[in-house]
Amino acid sequence: MSTSALRRMLTRGAEHAPWSAAARQDTLFLAAGVPLGLPALSVMAFAPTATFGPLVALVLTLVCLDLLTTAQRTRIRRLRGLDVPGRLPVDAGWVARLRAGLTWRQAVYHLLAAPLFAVAGLAVVLAGGAGLAMATVYGWAFLMPHGSALRSGAGWTSTDGLTTAGGLTVLFAIPWLSAWLAGVDERAARALLGPNRTELLERRVEDLAESRAGAVDAADAERRRIERDLHDGAQQRLVSLAMNLGLARRTLSGVQPDAMQVIVEAHVEAQAAIVELRDLVRGLHPVILEDRGLDAALSGIAARAPVPVRLQVDLSTRPSATIEAVAYFIVSEALANVAKHARASRVDLSVEQQADRLRIVITDDGVGGADPATGTGLTGLRKRAASVDGTFAVASPLGGPTTVTVELPCEL
Amino acid sequence: MRAVIAEDSVLLRVGLVKVLEAVGFEVAAAVGDAEALLTAVEQHAPQVVVTDVRMPPGFTDEGVRAALMIRRQWPQTAVLLLSQYVEERYAADLLSGNTSGVGYLLKERVANVDDFVDALQRVAEGGTALDPEVVAQLLLRRHRDPLERLTPRERDVLALMAEGRSNTAVAESLVISDSAVAKHINSIFTKLDLSPADATHRRVLAVLRFLEVG
């Protein structure tokens, strides 16, 4: 045997020596599991009948599931430095809890694994005690009354020597055993007490979907607030200003021509500002959308589109405000794209509700060849649709026609 | 002429009063909500009412509902609706039943005082004034069947007619002669199977009827 191998063996031996910190920790960990596993074991063992016992244990376990799990998690955190993830908040309510896989995995741990490790832990502690007693037999055997089996004849017999050797063997073996048992317990707890990878991912997806919906809603609400502020403030003031200027232009007589010129220019400017502000507000969040819904709002953009639009809207109920806004802006951008690139003479626009989906189809008779990979307009549409988990598809052969199909959920 | 104004924004209300008084209307009352409007109409029996659509308490279509009630109860009173946006339903509701002396303009049009006063006077005299955007939307919904037979120019003429313009105004707007307009109108009436009618608003109403609004 080489020196380095020997050294390695000695090091590992020292790590698991009966007096090492690891041995103390592992044994403590197993010992702490004993009071947590024994109740279930005793209920199963001492209940009146064989089938009744496990049933009672199961019900009790389910009732005390969170308490037991918390205790086990605390034991693992304190003594192993490991944080087992807790129960998912989505499993609220009894029915949901009973349907959750995690509930049953935790029950399996508390009913099967915990009692098993409790027994093992008990055995380790008892074996440790016995080992200590055996190893120190020379220290106390003479205290035993004469004639006792433990006090052999003259004392220094070969039996006592063997007992000492056996005790030492047990004492040195126990740390290895408890390290192994503690490891298995830890793995079982990790696998059974906390959510598994799929559940963690599901939860993450739910969290992300929720936070994204919140962000989309918040952005939408913010746009509406700005729209409202602009409408109640700047827009009204501008209209009032233009009105006064228009009135001055109409009624003032005997004004110097150049002064009148200034009034006229100011009036024209004010009207231009009104139009610009109105277009800006429409781009933010059109009031008509909120007040009168998608159908009315889409009529507006279809009527303003430079290309003739045939509009077909079929909605039995109003989608959520955010979805309405997304649909509105998708149509608005799609029509702008058609006007910019398609060289189309007409557009067919249909919006219909199919179960809980909102289906938007925009077809133009233009030149086609629209590529979602290059067109920034199409990318914008795709992003808008994706922001609410919608789908987006373009069919645009060279020579046309181009069809954009968007499906959105009616509720976010 | 006696007028009543209903507009919840004080700024615009004051402006409207000034404009109406400047062009010779007597503003009997200027109020801020639909209920006060109905009271004022009952009290003052005005020839014309100018009202905002969106007013307290609900800020939805209080003005339209008040306008409909006024047209039912006081058919002699002309009503000009000012709306923040175009909603065909409002126009359709307003144009159904008694059909003379109605107008529907986007609110921002009051900034162009001359055009606004023209429209107001037209309405007060029993004519019609529809915002170009209203007309565009009404055409949008119905540009199938016979309307597809119209030439683009005839469509322009029809749109201006629907706004309530006279032949001369249409001619000016399109920079063509009066006789050319008359020719287009005859052609439109023929294509749409409408018998030519005399009064300006009659033509509008005929057009709107055809558009299935009236």
UniProtKB/TrEMBL annotation, chain A:
Domain of life: Bacteria
Record key words, sorted: ATP-binding, Kinase, Membrane, Nucleotide-binding, Phosphoprotein, Transferase, Transmembrane, Transmembrane helix, Two-component regulatory system
Matching SMART domains: HATPase_c
InterPro entries in the cross-refs: HATPase_C_sf (IPR036890), HATPase_dom (IPR003594), Put_sensor_dom (IPR025828), Sensor_HK_TwoCompSys (IPR050482), Sig_transdc_His_kin_sub3_dim/P (IPR011712)
Membrane-spanning parts: 28-46, 52-71, 108-141, 161-182
EC category: transferase
UniProt keyword Transferase present: yes
Record has Chaperone as a keyword: no
Domain Histidine kinase/HSP90-like ATPase residues, every copy: 322-412
Signal sequence extent: none
EC numbers: 2.7.13.3
Pfam families named in the record: HATPase_c, HisKA_3, Sensor
Catalyzed reactions: ATP + protein L-histidine = ADP + protein N-phospho-L-histidine
GO function term, MF aspect, one: kinase activity
PANTHER family: NITRATE/NITRITE SENSOR PROTEIN NARX-RELATED, NITRATE_NITRITE SENSOR PROTEIN NARQ
Protein name, per record: histidine kinase
Organism (species): Kitasatospora kazusensis
